[in-house]
Each structure stands twice: as C-alpha cells, then as structure tokens.
Amino acid sequence: MRFDIATLFPKMCEAVLSESIIGRARTAGFLEVNCWNIRDYTLDKHRRVDDSPYGGGRGMVMQADPIFRCYQAICADGEMAEKPHCIYLSPKGKVLTQQRARELVQQPRLFLLCGHYEGVDERVLNEIIDEEISIGDYVLTGGELPALVLVDTIARMLPGVLPEKCCFEEESHYSGLLEYPQYTRPAVWHGQEVPEVLLTGHHKNIADWRFAQSLDMTKQHRPDLYLDYLNKK
C-alpha cells in the first residue's frame, strides 16, 4: 500500500514515520510512504503557498494551485495509474474510527492533504478530495498530526507490518471493545498479584477471562461502545 502526504512540513512527518514499527515496515517494503512539500509546486519565487482570505478576516488560506500541482505530480509518480483515494485531514470531516481504518486499508493508494493556517481554498477540495477525516473535536495547528495518526492506524493492519493478525485484532476498538488488562513480570509488584488464571497456561480459561475483562472495561470506561457492541450482537 502507498501513502502520499502533501504537507508544508515533510521533515516533521518523516521524523515520525521513520521510527518504530512503521519505520521498520517501510524499510522492509511492506508499505510505501512519500512526503511531498507543497512549496515545491508553487510558481511564486518566494515559495509562497498562502494568501489572505477573500471577504476579510485574520490569518491566511492555502492557495489551490500549489496543492493541485502537487497532487498532479503525485498522480503521475510511480507505476500506479489509477487516481489515489484523496483525504483532507480536517475538523469538518467525520471522526476517524477503527471501522473506517479497516475499510481504508483496502485502498491501494491514499493521498493525504495536510491543511494549515486558516485552511485550504475550497475549490481545490471540490476538485480532488474524496472525503474529509478528523481525529477528534479539537483544534490543531495543521493536518500533519492527523495524517500521521491515520497512516499509523491503517499501516499496522497491512500484511507483514506486525508479526501476526492477533497483534492488532486483540487491540482496543478493533472488535468494538476495549482491550483487557495486561501484565508482565514480576508476578507480585507493590503487593499486587497478577491474576491467577494468567499463570495457569490454560488457553481457553485465559481467553474467557480476557473477553470478560474486555466487556467489563468497556462497560465501565466507554458505556457508549458497550451499548453499540451489544446492539450489534
């Protein structure tokens, strides 16, 4: 799978995506991530990509043309002839869920547009964007952090990125429930003991305990998810 991130801060994105699991997966060739600097596609000699908004107001708006030129370069790059699925990271978008990530992992190629300043000229969004996605109802400086979150969420479900499917299928939200509590050595720490069932080696009992714990954790901490889970059963 290929990700193309259009941003004003490619080094910021590379710093995160070159580390840990995603960084190793990129090196191994399990996914491709390219960070494109929108400033490289402006015709302005000062590499300017923004201007004041029509109608007045504070702040600056990213111009349509540099973004569109960047998009065209991305579409022409590589062997994939089809148009990428284009996402604008925006507070106006639907909030990212695990279910949407599971759907997006089926796409061969994603184009992620990171806005900045007061946003992006609406005309380029109308021209190229397929959907808008938010990572929460709060304000961020730009779209880079949401883009990184989206890449991480999707990439960890790609074949080879994690050792086995259970590494992500048993995580919080994947099944609709929060994950069960985890423990490691020592067996007793500050007077607190690891639940005895986890020391037995009895796989079915352990699985039953973990499921019961997931249900209880979800009911306590996210009653909305708990009710959704019950309604889908």
Shape: elongated
Average residue pLDDT = 94
Radius of gyration: 22 Å
N→C terminal distance: 32 Å
Strands ordered across the widest β-sheet: 2-1-6-5-7
Beta-strand percentage? 15-25%
- Helix % is 25-40%
* SS field, number of helical segments: 9
Oligomer: single chain
Give the SSE order as H and E letters: EHHEEEHEHEHEHHEEHH
- Sheet of most strands: 5 strands, parallel
| Number of DSSP-assigned strands | 9
Please state the structural category: alpha/beta
What does this 3D model show about the protein?
- This protein is α/β, with parallel strands linked by helices and 233 residues long.
- 38% of the residues lie in helices and 18% in strands.
- The chain has nine helices and nine strands.
- The strands form three sheets. The chain has a five-stranded parallel β-sheet with strand order 2-1-6-5-7, with helices on both faces. Strands 3-4 form a two-stranded antiparallel ribbon.
- α4 links the parallel β5 (85-95) and β6.
- α1 packs parallel to α6 (144-155) and α8 (203-221) packs across α9.
- It is elongated and about 70 Å long.
- The chain starts with a strand and ends with a helix.
- The model has no long low-confidence stretch (mean pLDDT 94).
